[in-house]
Amino acid sequence: MTVRFVGAGPGAADLITVRGREVIASSPVCLYAGSLVPAELLEHCPPGAKLVDTAKLTLDEILTEMLAAHDAGLDVARLHSGDPSVFSAVAEQMRRLDAEGVPYDVVPGVPAFAAAAASLKREFTVPGVGQTVVLTRTSARATPMPEGEDLATLGASGATMVLHLAVNRIEELVDELVPNYGADCPVAVVAAASREDEVVLRGTLADIAGKVRAAGIVRTAVVVVGKVLTASEFPDSHLYSAGRCRD
Question: In angstroms, rounded to a whole number, what is the distance separating the alpha carbons of residues 30 and 206?
Fold first, then answer.
């Protein structure tokens, strides 16, 4: 028996990996976050599979389902939105499974920031403009940020910043980012990336808050800040340069 944490992708049902789909199809138990994971993915579950929506369950209740499957010798597909490596809350589940001696593995998925970049038709690492991407969030009602990971500190380098779980605090984000990036710094907000109801907003730190409020965006969005969003004059990458040695 194995618990498999599967990155279900950013929202579009066809953005799950082939491996992730195969895990779903072969697992007699499927735990999924119903508020975020597309319902179409459940169509890949085998006939008679036990489906458990974890959206309103506590960590202990989720673990109980996993342990029951373990006792019955049944594999579990544990679906998380995006990719399990960032902001997925899998670490505490893994810690509990380790303590119980339950085996597990991880199937990566398409993260929300990658889907946002695709929607924006932008590369977040542009030669001569930006080669570093900071993936972060803000506290609000969530777990407090560790010391030294405030936006003022993280933004000191001027690196491209991608903020998850933060759009509902857009005014505060602007206030904290302007000192490092400037009011004219390009910003994009992508809500429900890859989904049919996707919304893309473009602006600057000076006007993005008003655009977000006017659009009524309060969740399921990433905020991207950085010059790479509008860069047009930059050197070609050395990767495909004619002067690069290919021997």
Answer: 45
Query: Which is higher by pLDDT, 167 or 244?
Result: 167
> Which residues make Cβ contacts (< 8 Å) with residue 247, sequence separation at least 6?
none
Tell the burial category of 48 from Cβ atoms under 10 Å away from its Cβ (0-12, 13-18, 19+).
exposed
CA dist 177 and 153 (Å) reads: 10
Average pLDDT over all residues of the chain: 93
Q: How large is the average pLDDT for residues 201-205? A: 98
Task: Decide if 57 contacts 37 (C-beta within 8 A).
Answer: no
Q: Which residues contact 78 (CB under 8 A, 6 or more apart)?
A: 3, 4, 5, 6, 30, 31, 32, 66, 90, 93
Question: In the predicted model, what is the mean pLDDT of residues 92-97?
Answer: 97
The phi, psi pair for 173, rounded to 5°, reads -60, -45
Contact (CB, 8 A) for 97 and 24: no
Inter-CA distances, 32 with 49, 78, 132, Å: 13, 6, 32
Tokens representing 81 are 């939105």
Q: Which two tokens stand for residue 106?
A: 């991880």
Which are the contacts of 172, defined by CB distance < 8 A and separation ≥ 6? 138
Structure-block tokens of residue 223: 């905020």
pTM above 0.70, yes or no: yes
